Amino acid sequence: MNAQKTSVDTLISGAKIVSMDAQRSVFDDGAIAISGKTIVAIGASSEICSDYECASPIDGSRFVITPGMINGHIHVTGDPLTRAWLPDNIDADFVEELTRWVLPRFYAHEAQDEEISAELSALKMLRTGTTCFLEAGTVRYLDHVVEGARRTGIRGRVGCWVEGQGGNKDANSTQLIDDAIAMLEREVIEHPAAEGQTIAAWPILVGHSTNPDEVWRAAKTIADNNGLGVSAHMSPYASDPAWFLERFGRRPIEHLFDIGILGSNVCLTHLAHIDESEQQLLAETSTNAILCPLAALKGVFGLAAVGRFPEMTDAGINLMLGSDGFDQDMMRQAQFASALFKDIRQDVTKFPAEDMLSMLTCNGAKGMGLDAEVGSLEVGKKADFVCHDTDRPEWQPVIGVVNQLAWLADGRSVHSVWVDGTRVVDNYRATLVDEEALYAKAAESAAAVIKRAGIDFISPWPVI
Ligand SMILES: [Zn+2]
Q: What global pTM score does this model have?
């Protein structure tokens, strides 16, 4: 009936599309049309193809299309280049791990190392279907990290390493606090979340017991005034509650509530050791929680004994997932999160496939304040999406795409990825990054970082 079809930049038809829209529409024979950076149409192939045309339409019959996944907590520097150098049995003691193994590697990074590390991290994310990330706030050379990530085409929010307290956490220094606040103010001016900027700064805090109240308040004020958010680590172990109780007579979330930090633009990562009162405050203030399943399991946070994540989601808390310093394949992280709590609660209804996909997409977008732009495939939203390749053994036969996405597939079947309307992964290869050249640079950087950090390789097996 349409004499004149509308021309678009990208048109994919014949695909199965899991839209993650409000109705959770799944199109069995679906099409998506992209113009510039934006989704202009999505629906049944027969309807979309009668209204839109494209110079190089894409046959989507081998693809399951989902929104790009969102990693709510990742260290793009510090860990990615050198984590495998560490002995594998040191994670049980948080303080020893930090002081002996983690911090020396972070501080041994120079600007160029952080840039390469960020670019490699972004590449790993894109190649496994993550199109948007929230950095953990441990970047030391922000300009370089922004540059490295931006080169890949990924979307993200990053922040400098800001503490405001020196090595002696009981001794505040006015100068340290002033410097920390100045850095928070400067970074959001230098890397604003303006239209067209896929990578931008947030006031992100290391959290735990490293930030005085003045720094927490400044971060929240800067976030509120600029339409941004605050992210911080809190309570992976009982040491954070112990410190806050001793200093303030209040648990960490209670104290953050007391000083006006909690809110819908705040993302707190780990939250393993919170009690019912803290859970209630998180729910009342619409504060977002981020679970990093593999980091929690390998780091022995004790989720089986104290984790409250099913109860937190029952209370209405928005739950996102993160990779922290581990596997950046978010589809695998979701499997850990779901399987863990099914077993802990001995309840198969906890975190079913539908919840897993929500945590990976729209929940992440909501926590990052980007839900008007990404997290679902709808007209008017940014074209951030993933084509999962079903021409692979793990996908055959294709009979239940939501369950297959959640439990049978992983990031290895990510064939193509679009971010902001640009195809940044095509046929399993990044389009904007020379992958082999990056691997070579990363190897050089890793060797240099390890040498500067002075950490000897300790192998229980002979390396000949
Ligand atoms: Zn972290």
A: 0.96
